Amino acid sequence: MALIRHFIAGEESPAEPTGAVRTGPVFNPATGERQHEVALADTAETQRAIAAARAAFPAWRATSLTKRADVLFRLRHLLTERKEELAAIVTSEHGKVLSDAAGEIGRGLENVEFASGLIDKLKGEYSEQVSTGVDVHSVKQPVGVVGCITPFNFPVMVPLWMVASAIACGNTVVLKPSEKDPSASVYLAKLFREAGLPDGVLNVVHGDKEAVDAILDSPDVSAVSFVGSTPIARSIYQRASANGKRVQALGGAKNHMVVLEDADIDAAADAAVSAAYGSAGERCMAVSVVVAVGDVADRLVPAIHSRLDALRIGPGTDAASEMGPLITREHRDKVASYVTGAAAEGATVVADGTQRDFEGDGFFVGVSLLDHVRPGMKAYDDEIFGPVLSVVRVDTFEDAIELINANPYGNGVALFTRDGGAARRFEFEVEVGMVGINVPIPVPVGAYSFGGWKNSLFGDSHIYGPESFHFYTRSKVVTTRWPDPVHSRIELAFPGNS
Ligand code: NAD
């Protein structure tokens, strides 16, 4: 069985596959087959990757902005050229359908494109004559070694959210991808190398808590970007910030889609089905709750239900499949338990995907629709992260906003309506970081930054886009005087602005 290895200072490690290292299984979720082993780094191996990044930092931060941009331009070209190959790797370890895998590469490309405009983004400021004969300017300098820790659900896009901007700013990186689908990160690191990135600037270590803790505790790591579930995001934020690092830790989500009585019901039903069941619901921006206002539910629930039988669920490699399996058997069973337990809690199970049979040992489950769900039920309170859509019925628009604002998560939210006034009020009052008006999955384009509020993000910087150039640099302000020697004198008073 092939061993997926670390990529440190431009080389795979351990040099030869060996039985001496701790490993974890990598499955093909469509077949249930254990297809690879992945090396799990211990503290020493992780420290070796950090040391490689540290050693590469002085030369990379001194590399001209034009040369850094060149690497990103070439990477963009290579990623476009190899899209299919990379999508196949994603599908084989994650399970999502090939078109969806290609879609995430496309969204990741936006981050490479944004970062390749680094010359513009790294501009400082200049103020002439702030005092007589005194000028001030500011520069943005890299922070040093950045630790990037990523989740399983976007094995290409989320690493690119972080790595493209971190490297553009002159930092070096240790990337710790999800151990469930680690191959895409190694592929990306090799592609960066082919694009001209010097060895050691981007290193990949695989692993679990031990590797992550080594990153969080290392005095040589200056900043940490994390994306994953809320409990881990919270603990990463606490540990990394206690160790004096700047940290952004993006967590889980419970995304609501409000449908008002004036909305186009067919368009809303199409959007709900796409956003709830795409990628088997394993998206942090998936819609998991439809909030039906007034009498909307009586029309919307049948409209959603009527679309479910036609969804084609199967291996991601099959061009006919629209939805693939879940990431692991355990996760599939956990997702199913929310549907099985829903009726006992008082919900109506409109469609039960757990009853659907699939051939073989893949981690498949059918799509489920729950109606009359309320806060306090597990299906509402937990992030299920699977193809289960809950409908909560509320009487008024105000009730919908109150429900959402009381939820501990605040990643994405959507409103479906034809009423511009309601949309404006929604945007003003809703306590969520990313809002879609008649757009169910409002992932910002690469020129904006991505981030939720409340338990969906710990730290103050959103990820990718303009805020990433803030997060991955520290500013230095330089005050300059070139005195005319004729006017030089001793002056002990606090400098004023004369
Ligand atoms: P996860 O939290 O289990 O794992 C994320 C990363 O943390 C992985 O690299 C993993 O190896 C590491 N990790 C796991 N347990 C750890 C521990 N105890 N200590 C240190 N590190 C640990 O998340 P996941 O299951 O891979 O991904 C799904 C979650 O990610 C969902 O909750 C989803 O909402 C969230 N997510 C959020 C966003 C966002 O932008 N907010 C984007 C994608 C995914």
From TrEMBL:
Superkingdom field: Bacteria
Residue ranges of the Aldehyde dehydrogenase domain? 23-478
SUPFAM superfamilies, A to Z: ALDH-like
- What keywords would UniProt list here? NAD, Oxidoreductase
Pfam families given for it?
Answer: Aldedh
Q: What is its EC number?
A: 1.2.1.27
Keyword NAD set for record:
yes
- The record's top EC class is oxidoreductase
Q: NCBIfam families of this UniProt entry?
A: MMSDH (TIGR01722)
Q: What is this protein called?
A: methylmalonate-semialdehyde dehydrogenase (CoA acylating)
The species this protein was found in? Leifsonia virtsii
Q: What is the lineage of its organism?
A: Bacteria, Bacillati, Actinomycetota, Actinomycetes, Micrococcales
